[in-house]
Design goal:
- The protein is of the alpha+beta class.
- 40% of the residues lie in helices and 25% in strands.
- The protein is built from 21 helices and 31 strands.
- The strands form 7 sheets. Strands 2-12-4-3-7-6-5 form a 7-stranded antiparallel beta sheet. Strands 10-9-8-14-13-11 form a 6-stranded antiparallel beta sheet.
- A hairpin with a 2-residue loop joins strand 13 (296-304) and strand 14.
- Helix 7 (159-174) runs parallel beside helix 11, helix 17 (591-621) packs parallel to helix 21 and helix 18 packs parallel to helix 19 (672-688).
- The longest helix is centred in the last third of the chain and has 67 residues, at 519-585.
């Protein structure tokens, strides 16, 4: 038979194969009887074959028969009364009396040696009436009735016993550390049960166990501090310990009592005995105990928050039967200690949370007082950051700034580690006590950073990290035998779990690992992440506010500068243009200078228009432009625009036309100056960029269904007028605009190629759209290259018609 090392996948597969032997072994231990009853008549459908040892009736003669064959009518009636209870488990255990034939079973079926007084008393008892300690459980297969003969030495009404139990509980409650609590528990259970060895066994995070307390007979070798592989208690066994909190094996070398069933179907599912106290033991566990030299055992579960925290393992090196009362007392102690464990953990957590909250509050206050100096705040409070999660070093990484405090890797190593973190799935938090396993370069600095706890935050495309480090903690783990030899390969190639045959201390040195990060420390790190997020948001808000203030100051400065510039430039420029006109009209000016004067005049006018446009844009950006409504004659405005552009259009040979729909009112209430500026810019551009063909302007209006209230001469009599939407289109047959330029032409200083050739300022369309939007509308364009363009202006809140 060849031994091999196991992998987690192999172990899981092999453990699954052992579930039937754990939950449904097909037999019971022979220190009691099991009957499976079918309601409502309590027909016996299964029975353990050792029933004949107690009642003198063969098991085969009982299946299919009524329970009355074993118990009197009164006893059966009592059982039926219990079945009416809402919670059947609360009735357990109860006493049943039965007439038996001859002696009770000898020690042959219970053990090979009679060194237990309880076993001797049970084997030597001869009476016509026997009291059974009985339990009932409901299962899918029927009612499980377990009968355990009451021992003559049992005294369940002992006042002295309960006084002793009360003192035990008081002593356990007065302990202040986990080590003291578990050690006292081991000693008290030993005093109660008389077992040779009591061990308190705790499961670690990877499911392997360690003996944290022990009480034993003096000559025995100590197992305190030994580690046991997870395979010593496979997953099915741990499930069972969680489900059923006490387990007795009076004689490891017992002869199994098989179950005799009324159903002889070979395909039938084996009976699930998870709830049974007499349940047979898995061959794996029997072999394990035999290899340890154990003759009898008792195991009590320690359950913490629905999780199997550990076990109280009681070992005796000869058969030992424990009374039901003692077993229940041990079970109660296990439940009490589990509660005390939770209480102690809560006390420790409470102290730790108080410390964490104090640190968090201190940091939050510091952030509020200095939102612009997050890096400095965290660096100054590095000691508190280390205390927060019990680390030896911390790296503070805020965007591109890195601060290192305590014992930790070099700056370059930290930068590489920060670059590696985003590759992980744990975006918010990452922890490991074996960093080199996940990040091989960490083996170079394992002495300072074998453990890593990191929180990360990405906000506004900037990343923020806090990295806590723990140094290598070299551990010498003492295993109870080699933990890597739990699987054997049979001669036919089959793999199976096998109990270890050697329990000699096997030492293993564990390197490149740190102390593990505890759950409260991880919770504290997450709380710190929330604090960091609030600080970053506060910092961002402060930064935005400062930016807004700086922008406002800059805008005011720009507006003042542009206003001063326009004033300073307009005065001399107007003088230049004025004297240019005077010189151009003077008969004394030589003819050859007229062309030069024309160039000066046109350049000056262009410069003046540019100054006006820039000043207008600065007012828009500063929010100084408002709608100034007034009543005006719209048709007269159109006539003035037609007269203004008629000469320029005729000079280029273009046909200029205005079409006004009948729906357009003569008088409107709107901002005449802005409307005039919009129309001048659109019509002027159309003429500028059209070399032949026509430019047409069409206006129309439509009622919105809304009304507006206007004052009349009699202030007490308001007049209601309909609200209309005014829109106009400027169509030309010019060069057209490519589709890709439809959006950019409305941006400041943006021009098409034709616009740059025409020496435009690039501000006209932008100003026009801003004015249109200020008046509740917009300007859009549709254009085809070499065909023409159509600019449409809609004033959505339009102009209210007036009398």
């Amino acid at each position: 038979m060849e031994q091999t090392e196991f992998t987690p996948a192999m172990l899981t597969l092999l453990e699954d194969c052992t579930e039937e032997s754990v939950f449904a072994p097909g037999h019971i231990q022979p220190y009691g009887i099991l009957l499976v009853l079918q309601e409502p008549h309590l027909t016996i459908v299964q029975v353990s074959e050792n029933v004949e040892d107690f009642f003198g009736v063969a098991a085969t003669a009982l299946v299919g028969k009524s329970l009355h064959l074993l118990f009197s009518r009164d006893q059966v009636k009592r059982i039926k009364a219990l079945l009416l209870q809402e919670n059947l488990e609360s009735c357990n255990a109860f006493e049943l009396e039965a007439q038996i034939n001859g002696r009770l079973p000898s020690l042959v079926n219970l053990g090979n040696a009679a060194d237990s007084q309880n076993l001797e008393a049970l084997g030597d008892t001869e009476a016509s009436t026997q009291i059974f300690r009985s339990t009932l459980h409901r299962t899918k297969a029927g009612l499980l009735l377990e009968l355990e003969p009451q021992l003559p030495t049992e005294n369940i009404h002992s006042t002295q016993f309960y006084h002793h139990l009360q003192a035990v509980i008081l002593n356990l409650r007065n302990t202040i550390t986990l080590a003291a609590l578990t050690q006292m528990l081991a000693e008290e259970v030993k005093a109660l049960t008389g077992f040779d060895r009591i061990m308190v066994y705790r499961f670690e995070a990877d499911e392997h166990g360690v003996v944290i307390a022990e009480a034993k007979e003096q000559p025995l070798e100590s197992y305190l501090g030994l580690h046991y592989p997870a395979t010593d208690i496979p997953v099915p066994a741990r499930k069972l310990f969680l489900h059923n909190s006490i387990r007795q094996i009076p004689n490891v070398n017992y002869s199994p009592a098989r179950l005799v069933s009324i159903n002889i179907d070979p395909e039938a599912q084996p009976l699930d005995l998870s709830d049974g106290l007499l349940r047979g033991v898995s061959p794996y566990h029997i072999e394990y105990l035999q290899n340890m030299g154990v003759g009898g055992s008792l195991t009590i579960s320690l359950v913490n928050d629905n999780r199997l925290w550990g076990l109280i393992a009681c070992h005796h090196y000869s058969p030992k039967l424990v009374t039901y009362e003692i077993r229940k007392t041990c079970e109660f102690l296990g439940q009490f200690v589990a509660t005390e464990l939770i209480y102690q953990q809560e006390r420790e957590l409470s102290r730790y949370h108080t410390q964490v909250n104090a640190i968090q509050d201190h940091l939050q206050q510091a952030f509020l007082q200095e939102p612009d100096f997050m890096q400095q705040v965290l660096t100054r409070n590095a000691t508190q950051l280390l205390e927060l999660v019990h680390a030896e070093g911390v790296a503070i990484v805020l965007d591109q700034q890195i601060s290192l405090m305590g014992q930790l890797p070099s700056l370059e190593a930290v930068k590489a580690l920060v670059a590696w973190l985003p590759q992980l799935k744990q975006h918010n938090l990452y922890r490991t006590d074996h960093l080199a396993q996940a990040y091989p370069p960490a083996s170079a600095f394992k002495d300072t950073a074998s453990g890593l706890l990191a929180i990360s935050l990405v906000l506004h495309q900037k990343s923020y990290h806090l990295l806590w480090f723990r140094p290598e903690q070299i551990q010498m783990v003492h295993w109870a035998g080699d933990p890597h030899t739990a699987i054997v390969v049979d001669s036919d190639g089959e793999q199976r779990l096998t109990p270890r045959k050697s329990f000699q201390i096997w030492k293993e040195t564990v390197r490149a690992t740190s102390l593990p990060w505890a759950a409260p420390e991880i919770e504290a790190a997450l709380m710190m992440r929330n604090t960091l997020m609030l600080a970053v948001l506060e910092f961002s808000q402060a930064a935005l506010q400062q930016s807004a203030e700086r922008a406002a100051i800059a805008n005011r400065a720009k507006s003042q500068f542009l206003a001063k510039m326009s004033h300073e430039l307009r005065t001399p420029l107007n003088a230049i243009l004025g004297f240019t006109q005077v010189m151009n009209r003077s008969p004394k000016t030589p003819t050859e200078f007229h062309e030069h004067l024309g160039i000066i005049s046109r350049s000056g006018e262009y410069l003046l228009a540019l100054i006006n446009d820039v000043l207008e844009m600065s007012r828009i950006d500063a929010g100084q432009q408002v709608v100034k409504e007034s009543d005006f004659n719209l048709r007269r405005l159109l006539r003035s625009l037609q007269e203004m552009f008629a000469l320029k259009a005729s000079q280029k040979g273009l046909i200029l036309s205005f079409e006004v729909d009948e729906s357009v009112p003569r008088y409107v209430c709107s901002d005449e100056a802005k409307l005039r500026q919009i129309m001048i810019n659109l019509i002027g551009n159309a003429i500028k960029f059209t070399t032949q063909g026509s430019v047409s302007i069409s206006l129309r209006a439509e009622a919105t269904g809304l009304t507006t209230e206007r004052s009349s001469n009699d202030r007490n009599t308001p007049i209601l007028f309909p609200v209309v939407r005014l829109s106009f289109e400027v169509r030309d047959t010019g060069h057209g605009i490519a589709h890709r330029d439809w959006g950019p032409i409305f941006e400041t200083f943006m021009q098409t190629q034709e616009g740059r050739q025409a020496q435009g300022t690039g501000l006209g369309l932008s100003i026009s759209r801003q004015f249109a939007r200020l008046m509740g509308g917009d300007i859009t364009v549709q254009s085809t290259v070499n065909v023409g363009s159509t600019f449409t202006c809609r004033l959505m809140d339009n102009p209210n018609p007036v009398p």
